[in-house]
Amino acid sequence: MVQSTVLGYPRVGTNRAAKKATEGYWAGKVTEQELQDAHKAIRKERWETLKEAGVDFIPSGGEYTLYDSLLDHSFNFGVIPQRFVDQKLSDVDTYFAMGRGHQDRAKGIDVAANEMGKFFDSNYHIVKVDHTADQEFTLKRNQALEEYEEAKALGIETRPVLFGPVTYLSLVRKARDAPADFKPIALLDKLLPIYVEVLESLKKAGAKEVQLDEQILVTDQGEALAAEFKKAYAELAKVGLPITLTTAYGRVGKSIEFIKDLPISTLHIDLDREPKQLDAVIAAIKPTKINLELGLISGRNIWKNDLNASKALAEKAVAELGSDRVRVGTSSSLLHTPLTIAVENKLTPEQLSWLSFAKEKAGEVTALAAALNGKESAAFEQNAKDIAARREFERTSDSAVRDRVAAITPEQLKRKAEFPVRREAQKAKLNLPKFPTTTIGSFPQTKEIRVARAKFGKGELTKEQYETAMEDEIKSVVAIQNRLGLDLLVHGEPERNDMVQYFGEQLTGFIFTQLGWVQSYGTRYVRPPIVVSDVSRPAPMTVRWSAYAQSVSEKPMKGMLTGPVTILNWSFPRADISKEVQSKQLALALRDEVVDLAEAGIRAIQVDEPAIREGLPLRREDWDAYLTWAVDSFRLSTSGVENDVQVHSHFCYSDFGDIFPHIQRLDADVISIEASKADLKLLDIFKQHGYSNEIGPGVYDIHSPRVPSEQEIKDRLKAFAEVIPADLLIVNPDCGLKTRAWKETEESLTNLVNAAKWARENLQ
Ligand code: MET
Ligand SMILES: [Zn+2]
């Protein structure tokens, strides 16, 4: 019998109950007991949903969390850096402080959070707790057991989940003051007894097996960890609780050579991302006793699964291994998908027929298992019809757009002249001082702005009234920038709800959910747009706002767009054509916008690409292919203008070290880049690679309300000027200011402008 599995499920709860309970607790409106009860109710709802769907292996334990599951593991293992211990907070407050920091001036509490990092190539962020070289572990809390028993008390048998020990240690951070050559993986021997203790307790409580997530196995780094895997799993196998080792987000590649020899009972592989790995994995494990769990239903996209295609793949495995050794399931946890399409009431029935969110995916998993067991359901037949209809829709959507992509020429990927020539033309046109000051685009999104947008949405404001309100805001933002003495101005982006959604709504080819929330980190949820068909731009999108802003400003105004790669990476892409083609469709639409902005008299245009790094494939051998189309897309979108138009780009959020040479290849005239984190890693990168165009490393961190002093900014500029020629330096904050309040914004920018004035006199 083929059985079914779901690796993990969204934590959001119906009506975003998780967010409400947790934020209510932070605000002091919900007691700790109410907080715990609310989360318990969400866990119950999740388990019951999966049980009703008929899933055989229902996850529990380490895949549910109040904030982040990697953080949970650290906390449960007693890894609580001293600075949190020192605050003497309650357990739950210590836990939240580790995730998001804690500041309570009245009580003298001020502690910064642990660092966050992107979880593999998803937009979900894990909290990476600092581990010292002499780190000790204790089982402070046995969450896997607690939640296994919690489900059992509800009459639901579950499969407890934990990060495997090797992946856990590969993802956490080393303490800043730890020796340079220390790596947390060196703590494996000390950590294993904790895992043994947990597994023993689960076995005693009656668990049938445990799910250990070892996603690190899909990275190049995983290949180098064979010895650690052997050691860890030999130890864990002694407990005698069957282990399902799961991989996700990519292919196991060469690592299958040692995985097949691990004493595990089941191996889970991602066949949504990497269907091609199936044959090699089957061949490797066939002579062993290892069962194979096929991750066929995507945990990453929102498309209805093509059940017939999945069934064909699964049948291959069944033919080789026998049905008792094969299971079917989700490719990864479903945490990257929204909860259910059932609550969407603005999408058309046709659109809904294309989609499948977490709850529907659980149904697909069981329908697939049933079909493999000879019980093809009505759902299966309907699925075939829906898939055929979607294919037809996609195929016929807009052939003109596809023709335009096919006709892209090498000339369209290049500016007319090289940077030095462009630079002279731009200097003459823009007439900016040395160390020019600018900002990244957005200014505070005040309550008034959001109220106006909400009213416009509800029809309480006419289009004209709304546009007047936005123009008034722009005018005021321009006046403030003039008063502060900034050089290259922005319109402030008041009209944008979100930097991706705003463009998606004006392009053809996108649809939007109302409640399709996906966790980004902690209680922060986003609603990614969905690309459903060929993308084009029916009309200019930003020109009227930028032109208005320029009309009320003597100083040059910078146009502001979100780049093609970022729009794509922060949306759910189509599955029928490559991301490359989708990105180029977006690039062509943006290219037209860039040209229109220039024609409207905008002399500097910024095309933001903050998400370019996170789309980077997990395996180095796949990097070139991605970076080639990503860089080409940016160039395609920005190369349609004359030499005297200054093209800017902006990056933030991540570690650019490994792709910095490709940032250079974007050939933007000016880039701004996040650099204000204390250790200034970026400077080393400049030293190593150099950079030939203009660059504005952020001089202060906008993620906190803290106002940087003038001296601090001077010091930053001085440090930058030591590695970057002074005449290439631009002065700007780290990122947009939309989440900030006006007071700190004005104070910070005053200091920034003064520091730039000082730099003009004092730095060469
Ligand atoms: C996440 S990058 C944000 C860039 C955008 N132009 C802003 O200023 O908000
Ligand atoms: Zn940014």
What does this structure look like?
With 764 residues, the chain is an alpha/beta fold. The protein has 3 domains: 3-9 and 48-64 and 130-395, TIM Barrel (Alpha-Beta Barrel); 416-430 and 496-647, TIM Barrel, CATH 3.20.20.210; 433-482 and 674-764, TIM Barrel, CATH 3.20.20. It is 43% helix and 13% strand. It contains 29 helices and 23 strands. Strands 1-14-13-12-11-10-8-2 form an 8-stranded parallel β-sheet. A 5-stranded parallel β-sheet has the order 19-20-21-22-23. Helix 27 (681-689) links the parallel strand 22 (670-673) and strand 23. The longest helix is centred in the first third of the chain and has 22 residues, at 32-53. It is globular. It starts with a strand and ends with a helix. It binds methionine and zinc ion (ZN). Zinc ion binds next to loops. Methionine binds next to loops. GO terms for molecular function: 5-methyltetrahydropteroyltriglutamate-homocysteine S-methyltransferase activity; zinc ion binding. Residues 4-317 form the Cobalamin-independent methionine synthase MetE N-terminal domain. L-methionine binds at residues 440-442, 493, 608. It is an enzyme of class 2 (transferase). Zn(2+) binds at residues 650, 652, 674, 735.
Write the layout of secondary structure elements.
Blueprint: E1 3-5, H1 17-26, H2 32-53, E2 59-61, H3 69-76, H4 82-85, H5 91-100, E3 102-104, E4 109-111, E5 115-118, E6 125-128, E7 130-131, H6 143-153, E8 159-163, H7 165-171, E9 173-174, H8 188-205, E10 210-213, H9 220-223, H10 226-237, E11 243-246, H11 256-259, E12 266-270, H12 278-285, E13 291-297, H13 307-321, E14 326-330, H14 349-352, H15 358-372, H16 378-395, H17 399-406, H18 419-430, H19 447-457, H20 463-484, H21 501-504, E15 508-511, E16 518-521, E17 524-526, E18 530-536, H22 543-551, E19 558-562, H23 564-569, H24 579-599, E20 604-608, H25 623-638, E21 646-651, H26 660-665, E22 670-673, H27 681-689, E23 694-697, H28 710-723, H29 742-762
Parallel strand pairs: 1-14, 2-8, 7-9, 8-10, 10-11, 11-12, 12-13, 13-14, 19-20, 20-21, 21-22, 22-23
Antiparallel strand pairs: 3-4, 5-6, 15-18, 16-17
